[in-house]
Amino acid sequence: MQQLFRQLPSIDALLKQPQAVELCQKFTHSSVVEQARILLEQARKQIIEHQALPDFIADENAFFAMLGEKLQALSEVKIRTVFNLTGTVLHTNLGRGLWSEKAISAATNAMRHNVALEFDIDEGKRSHRDNYISELIQQLTGAEAACVVNNNAAAVLLMLATFAQGKEVIVSRGELVEIGGAFRIPDIMAQAGCKLVEVGTTNRTHLKDYRNAITENTAFLMKVHTSNYHIQGFTSSVSEEELVALGKEYNLPVVTDLGSGSLTDMKSLNLPAEPMVQQKVAAGVDLVSFSGDKLLGGPQAGIIVGGKAMIEQLQQHPLKRVLRCDKVILSALEATLRHYLFPEKLTDELPTFHLLTQSLDSLQHKAERLKNGLSKRLDSRYILQIEPNLAQIGSGALPSETLPSLAVTISAEKQSDLLALEKAFKTYPSPIIGRFAQQKFWLDLRSVAEFEKLIEMLRR
Ligand SMILES: *Cc1c(COP(=O)(O)O)cnc(C)c1O
Fold first, then answer.
1. Ligand 1 atom closest to Cα of 181?
2. What is the Å distance from ligand 1's center to 303 Cα?
3. Is 405 within 8 Å of 391 (Cβ atoms)?
4. Is the pTM of this model over 0.70?
5. Which of 5, 81, 258, 271 would you call most buried, defined as having the most Cβ atoms within 10 angstroms of its Cβ?
6. Any idea where the L-seryl-tRNA selenium transferase N-terminal domain is (predicted)?
7. Which one of 3.40.50.261, 3.40.960.10, 1.10.150.130, 3.90.1150.110 gives the CATH number of domain 83-91+353-458?
8. DSSP H helical segments within 256-307, as ranges?
9. What is the residue extent of each domain of the chain?
10. By alpha-carbon position, which residue is closest to atom 6 of ligand 1?
11. Which tens digit of pLDDT belongs to each residue from 178-208?
């Protein structure tokens, strides 16, 4: 064993090799030394465990090739591009939707340059970073002002912390939602230091339930959009309009967490209806919150809209400073909202709407091209078919509301061959992510953006 140890090169000797000099130039001296040490440590371990030199020590070129690969891997970004063929268009695990070109260029502009984020150029004085969004929200929803934070979960937390700390908030038992990723209304209430007052039952809540729960200590009446489930059968809930009327009687604000929300009528695009922000504003709701990266089609953000006085209070709360967005997000959000000033072009310009509204004819065409591309890559163990499928909007939008779609399905005699294929798909330069169901592997065409790049990758 001692003899084997003696065959290990010293770091100094290694660093004198021309390959090492090259690597040092590309990756820095210190990183080369560190990674070389790690490789030598591995070699020592192998000598102890197996009484043998690893191959990469026996061959100097192999050693430097391995060192180069390790350094290259360290320099590469691990959040990689993937192709989403899961059938869930806004897949949270895959980063939700893509931004519009206008949003992307607004964001990169803000990255590369100084921008007038909190500066009023005309007046030559300081302004507020949410002003651009606030003005657009006024035009689009009729609300007086807006406050922008990191995401809608943060928006809910900020509304509760600002107006209900140490006080009671009345919510229907039918609306105590849990969204993926441990966002539960009762937990957020506890975090904001307010007391949740549950009223009604799971399936039925009446106006009198809210009325009976109002005390001296009530901060506001709250509605939460049940975005990821549907209570069916013997049900009843109280509308925003009714709650607003009750709130007026007792001088209490009404607050709505819309979840996704929408600024355009989904029905007119033949998509499942989603409550519209402007409808809630028109109904007299005092504060409405919704996400920037669900159906809105923009960057991750939470938008709160409402009257000037209440929005101003939100802006003054110390948590707002903690939860505020940066120039990149605010630029992309502004660009996204500007699309809504030209509603007929939304399906062309917002990738999310484009994907959701694709016709079955165009999906059929894509399915045939994908099947074709795959058939050239897969051997005879695999059977390819085009089958109808049900896609989902995703991101909390009702999973029970599905969109007609098409998928290329792959089946094989042996399940192990299918598992091997799923693994192989993950080794592509941009991994292909699909879904197992009914002993087949499903590749849904509705959720995949950048389809031409997918075909191009399969060709290579
Ligand atoms: C999705 C959702 C949230 C959380 O929104 P994020 O922007 O993902 O933080 C909160 N409430 C409801 C009702 C939701 O659907």
1. 8
2. 11
3. yes
4. yes
5. 258
6. 5-44
7. 3.90.1150.110
8. 277-282
9. 1-75, 83-91+353-458, 101-344
10. 152
11. 877 678 888 999 999 999 999 998 889 999 9
